[in-house]
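pinging the channel bc i need a second pair of eyes. not urgent but kinda urgent?? the chain im working w is below, pasted from the shared doc
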Amino acid sequence: MATARRERYRKQTREEAKAVALAQLSESGTAGISVNAIAKAMGMTGPALYRYFASRDELLTELITDTYRDLAETLAQAVADAAPADRFRALARALRDWAKRQPDRYLLIYGTPVPGYHAPPETTEIAAGLMRTIFDACATVGEAVEADGGGVDGGRQQPLTELEAELARHLEGAGPWGPGEEPGGEVKGRALRTWTRLHGVISLDVQGQFTGMGFDPSVLFEAEIDALVRGG
């Protein structure tokens, strides 16, 4: 019983510390996260809180891991609920909606890297699983275009571009794929272009760069989705 109570208290304390850290993140960015400041806000001493998190980097890792998991679950659910032909659009919209709801967490994983911080293997593994969902959704875009007879020569297999060939070489054997599941260079190239273009619009939107420009960023985002679906 005593051990169970201690574990519950430990878990509650760690969750409270992470909640305070997220508030600091919202106010001051990653540079403002301080274990001592978090402890003070919780009515604890710094050394006392260090019993729950050995360092600021350990706390950051928890925040980043939680964020990746939340985003991965959100995107996976969006794709699972959509018809095959709609999975890419569902994933793109879910990504933007998630980022708009919690911009601070979005910028934690896709904003400016934290100086001196190095992500541990468990963080990169979760991020790799997230990319698997993205690759799968991008693969369905290619299938839809080919089914419609789109693309050059009515969707017939085309030679890899320089980018696609490079990705096929560089990423061979890397990623969350089982035997026989690894996507080819064409899908890898499409996924990379998709990821960078969607994040380009989302990052500018989340940081308020469209403010005062006189148009709705969601219209731009939908236009980018349409262009990516068409292969543009």
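so The longest helix spans residues 2-28. and The chain has ten helices and no strands. — does that match what u expected or am i reading it wrong
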